[in-house]
Amino acid sequence: MGIPANGSEDSVSGPNGEEGRGIAELVTDPSLQVEISDAVSERDKVKFTVQTKSSLPHFTRPALSVVRQHEDFVWLHDTFSENDEYAGIIIPPAPPRPDFETSREKLQRLGEGNSTLTREEFAKMKQELEGEYLAIFKKTVAMHEVFLQHLAAHPVLRRDHNFYVFLEYDQDLSVRGKNRKELLGGFFRNMVKSADEVLITGVLGLKEVDEFFEHERTFLLEYNTRVRDTCLKADRVMRAHKSLAEDYIPISVALSSLGTQEVCQLQTPPELLGRVASDEDLKLSDLFKYYMRDSQAAKDLLYRRLQALADYENANKALDRARLRNKEVKPAEAHQQLCCQRFEQLSASAKQELTDFKSRRISAFRKNLIELAELEVKHAKASSLLLQNTLIVLKGDA
Amino acid sequence: MAAEREPPPLGEARQPELEELEDGEDLFTSTVSTLESSPSSPEPASLPTEDISINSNGPKPAEIILDDDREDLFAATEEVSLDSPEREPILSPDPTPAITPVTPTTLVTPRMESKSITAPVIFDRSREEIEEEANGDVFDIEINVSDPEKVGDGMNAYMAYRVTTKTSLSMFHKNEFSVKRRFSDFLGLHSKLATKYLHVGYIVPPAPEKSIVGMTKVKVGKEDSSSTEFVEKRRAALERYLQRTVKHPTLLQDPDLRQFLESSELPRAVNTQALSGAGILRMVNKAADAVNKMTIKMNESDAWFEEKQQQFENLDQQLRKLHSNVEALVCHRKELSANTAAFAKSAAMLGNSEDHTALSRALSQLAEVEEKIDQLHQEQAFADFYVFSELLGDYIRLIAAVKGVLDHRMKCWQKWQDAQVTLQKKREAEAKLQLANKPDKLQQAKDEIKEWETKVQQGERDFEQISKTIRKEVGRFEKERVKDFKTVIIKYLESLVQTQQQLIKYWEAFLPEAKAIA
Fold first, then answer.
1. CA distance B480 to chain A (A)
2. Which of B56, B107, B199, B388 has fewest C-beta within 10 Å?
3. Which residues have CB under 8 Å from B144's CB, separation 6+?
4. Where are the alpha helices (DSSP H) in chain A?
5. Chain A window 191-250: which residues touch B at a Cβ cutoff of 8 Å?
6. With an 8 Å Cβ cutoff, are A380 and B503 in contact?
């Protein structure tokens, strides 16, 4: 599959790609549309059906459909992040591993015949847990989809060969999970990276000449930490909400069985609470999680740039030394030129990417915060109405 | 169902009544010995004579406890007892006549006027009608427990609570009065009432529990939130206890209760201390009782009682479970509140580090909203606790009282059976003596037989009496329970509604901020 440098492509995707790349605010570009139409959960694997509609010439068919697993997504992400060509781009963060563990455990515990629950309670808990399972499922699908859509929307990344393979190759990709060596290697690389960061920026006294980048670096470092923390706290709130909702189940069942028949209507608060919890989760928690990862990706970009800067500096020093000794000046010059070019390319691209990142972030937050507020109001109004109706019934019976 | 209804044995004394009845709407307090075949006739506990004369003192309690199953409010045209105002502290074989308030209704009065001699008939009809109106509880007495005040210092310190009574009942000297009482006074009151009424089948509301830990903290002077919470909890519990006690028609008439509410000085109840001699005696008795209970095998001839016994067992279990669930709820809500607070702080920090001004402001606003929500959660937690959980605790203790009453009935039955056995033995002994021809001992034996015959009769009567009382009490209890739970649930739901309304306000205020992010 060749990658024609089609000018029209770029112009079409250009404006669309830059603006509004919020979490779910991707402008659908008709030339390449990717979505996950279906997902099946088997034992411990989730199989996603990825459908592509494209008018781009390098696809053999205008409509494609393949089945992919989570590991395939991770592989795709890794090929991007390890690809030097894309060093100046913020690589969209890989989707998180589908985690049904807690939910499955809970369901299992419930099924193991806990005798302290009455039949009604059991049914309700089951319903609640199933709802939770479904929500997690939906969320994981969304995350995977968003990853692909971001790739499709990026003018450079969408043209990647591996991306096409991912979308089109109708056999199993057989991406073997990283074996232990590779995992360890990756782990060490991360450690080295963070150590390097400190070294490069601190000890080696690399002067950041560009104010823009200086500002971005400070900002990103702090932001990343903070958003990580907020994400954690948001998760805790969500969990507390859930356990509260679960608490209401036995209570409402017990009350209704106490013989006062009006009390059956007390059932509704728990369901509402549960729904509020999962909606809040979708909005807030997801938002923070995504930006935690995205800001990490931005940090990575900065890091790569710094590395390039270091390389450039080193090349400069090497060139100076070579000139002094008047030996191998040409290759040193060439190398230095290369490094300089690379660094400048990177910087330019990085600047663009970081500006995008900011606007992306702002619009995503805006959208999600608005939706959150609207949802909260909606829910509160609904619960309020329900409660008031119940009250009327109760009082009327008096 | 023997000996259910009997015409009031005191037919004669009724004449003077009617005149007063004709006074119109006013219900007078009448006291009638409940239709027990009481040998000693007109000894109904009475209201002070003054009451009788003052007819127009608003709705006065007057009720005859009639039949078994029915909660009776009977505006009876029974004689007013002109006897001594003080009721005997210890209940004689005559169960205390129950004097309960009657809903003042005009419907009732005419009926009273028309019938005079055919009492049972009146009872029937009016009872039904009155039952319908029974929900309009016009006991007209309101109790408040407030102003907990620490008196004294160190380990001898105690909390004094102000007990305020507002009433229009004439049995009290004033319409509004208040006294200072301490916790042991309440316990003393309960102990007196329990001694008098429990063993004849009245469900005496249990007093709040002692708490050595809680009180020690208060005594020592720890001014932290847990001790204020403890005092508040106790104050509310004492209030509920008194309110429940005065709602009970019979107990309301008790002079001890009156003294508790009215008199400024109250003899210190020392017997309530856990480690006192009386306390230890109580514990021993409790243990003995428990053993006895296991050995009494009662032939329950009355299906009603069997059913009720089972019902109360079930109810007890349900309530206990519900109680623990609500406590878990309170705990989780507090957790949610803590988590929300942490989240709010974190969001504020995030807002600070965000360099886009509008977004930064929005995030700070979000943090504020979440903080307010945290407050809301905390308040809701209090509501959960005070409204719900405490009620459940009260009812669990009440059910223990009900079970106690049922146990007393069993003991009563046992006593009766024992008396019968003894009588039988005496008869056999007499027969033997007859054969042995010992005239002097014979006479003694005959006397003993007479004595035991009376005892057997008395035992039977007692048993029937207690059964009757219990039926009525249980009926009343059930009604009260439904009413109580309903009130509490309504209050609880209202608090939930409040919370939701507040949430709406907060989020609606936040929305424009979010929209302003440019």
1. 13
2. B56
3. B162, B163, B164, B166, B239
4. 7-18, 70-81, 101-111, 119-153, 161-168, 180-198, 211-257, 268-280, 286-325, 329-397
5. 219, 222-223, 226-227, 229-230, 232-234, 236-237, 239-241, 243-244, 247-248, 250
6. yes
Inter-chain residue contact A377 with B343, CB threshold 8 Å? no
Q: Is the pTM of this model over 0.90?
A: no
> Could you say which of B325, B345, B359 has the minimum Cβ distance to residue A250?
B325
Q: What is the bridge-based pairing of β-strands A63-69 and B176-182? A: unpaired
Question: Residue A340, class by beta-carbon neighbours within 10 Å (0-12 exposed, 13-18 middle, 19+ buried)?
Answer: middle
DSSP, res A200: I
Rg (CA), chain A: 26
Of A230, A260, A366, nearest to B485 by CB-CB distance is A260
Q: Residue B249 is encoded by which pair of tokens?
A: 């028609």
Contact present, A308 and A346 (Cβ < 8 Å): yes
Question: Any chain A CB within 8 A of the CB of B312?
Answer: no
A87-126: b or e for each residue (b if 16 or more CB lie within 10 Å)? bbbbbbbbbeebebeebeebbeebeeeeeebeebbbebbe
- Contacts with A, B 475-494, CB within 8 Å: 482, 485-486, 489-490, 493-494
Q: In angstroms, rounded to a whole number, what is the distance separating the alpha carbons of residues B495 and B214?
A: 28
- In the beta sheet, which residues pair with residue A47? A40, A69
Nearest CA in chain B to A241: B336
Would the CB atoms of A260 and B343 count as touching at under 8 Å? no
Which tokens belong to B338?
């803590």
Burial state string for B87-119 with b = 16 or more CB within 10 A and e = fewer than 16 = beeebeebbbbbbbbbbbbeebbebbeebeeeb
Q: Rounded to an integer, what distance in angstroms lies between the CA atom of residue B206 and that of residue B197?
A: 12
ipTM metric: 0.76
Q: Which residues in chain A have Cβ-Cβ distances shorter than 8 Å to B364? A: none
Interchain contact A19–B (C-beta under 8 A): no
- What pLDDT tens digit does each residue of chain B (518 aa) get? 343 344 444 333 333 333 333 333 333 333 333 333 333 333 333 333 333 333 333 333 333 333 333 333 333 333 333 333 333 233 333 333 333 333 333 333 333 333 333 334 333 444 444 443 344 345 678 888 888 888 887 777 788 888 888 888 878 888 888 888 888 888 888 888 888 888 778 888 888 887 777 677 666 666 666 777 788 888 888 888 988 888 888 888 888 888 888 887 777 766 566 556 666 676 777 677 666 666 666 666 778 888 888 888 888 888 888 888 888 888 888 888 888 888 888 888 888 888 788 888 888 888 888 888 877 877 777 776 667 788 888 889 999 888 888 888 888 888 888 888 888 888 888 888 888 777 777 888 888 888 888 888 988 888 888 888 888 888 888 888 888 888 887 888 888 888 888 888 888 988 888 888 77
**Chain A closest CA to B331's CA: distance in Å?**
9
CA A166 to chain B, closest CA, distance in angstroms equals 36
Query: What are the CA-CA distances from residue B369 to residues A373, B274, B348, B503 (Å)?
Result: 10, 50, 11, 9
Cβ contact B497–A395 (<8 Å): no
Chain A, nearest residue to B353 by Cα: A223
Per-residue CA distances from B149 to A340, B64, B188, B233 (Å): 82, 41, 20, 14
DSSP B220-276: HT--SHHHHHHHHHHHHHHHHHHHHHHHSHHHHT-HHHHHHHH-S-----GGGSTTS
Task: Enter the tokens of residue B455.
Answer: 């005892």
Return residues 115-174 of B near A (CB < 8 Å): 135
- The region, left, alpha or beta by phi > 0 then psi within -120 to 50, assigned to residue B297 is beta
Element (H, E) at A50: strand A45-54
C-alpha B234/C-alpha B302 separation (Å) is 40
